């Protein structure tokens, strides 16, 4: 069975509701104060409804629940059996959501040590400690040298950095994405979450990406070819 695909190819035009390109974090109006201050909740799968440890911090920007639900609806049957790799993990929400929906394991990368420690505590509270690897450090360094990662299962890579990185650290970020794209096993999926003013023409091999605007975000998908045995 071929994996579910979003319908739209990359469109570099900015959504008019996104405003001018600032490369900065989400405007305050993009999420309600209750959602911003509440521990994020897993929205589907066997752990649906469970919440993660969370301390409001400007360094942590959980993906809006509406955007996350749309993302996993689009991924559909692409999730089970994958290794989730949650870069710029924050709370680890995307990795935990993937585990709840059938990923076999998760690698979560977070440079802020107290936040990384909370991911470990969330994994223990959800009885997932044996399936979660937390790496503390600067994710952008993976673009220079990718660490050893399991390749026995397809990867499901989430790249959801601070939106300012798309302007301030664009070259490093695109190098990271390209490194992961080239290293990913057959049948893998890369997901980039950006604000709608980001021009996806900057992505490596931009014609191979598919987009789905979910204002104020845009979700960008890249699927690596399946191995002949799986096709």
Describe the structure.
- 24% of the residues lie in helices and 18% in strands.
- The chain is α/β, with parallel strands linked by helices and 231 residues long.
- The protein has a domain at 82-231: Rossmann fold (3-Layer(aba) Sandwich).
- The protein has an eight-stranded mixed sheet with strand order 1-7-8-6-5-2-3-4, sandwiched between helices.
- The radius of gyration is 16 Å and the shape is globular.
- Residues 1-8 and 11-31 have low confidence and may be disordered.
Widest sheet: strand ordering: 1-7-8-6-5-2-3-4
- The global form is globular
Task: Estimate the mean pLDDT confidence.
Answer: 85
What is the tally of beta strands?
8
Q: Name the CATH superfamily classification of the domain at 82-231.
A: Vaccinia Virus protein VP39
**SS summary, helix count:** 6
Q: Under CATH, the topology of the domain at 82-231 is which?
A: Rossmann fold
Descriptors:
Rossmann fold, 18% strand, 231 residues, alpha/beta, single chain, 8 strands
Compile the SSE list and pairings.
Layout: E1 8-9, H1 33-37, H2 65-75, E2 83-87, H3 93-100, E3 105-110, H4 113-125, E4 132-136, E5 155-159, H5 165-168, H6 170-183, E6 189-195, E7 210-214, E8 217-223
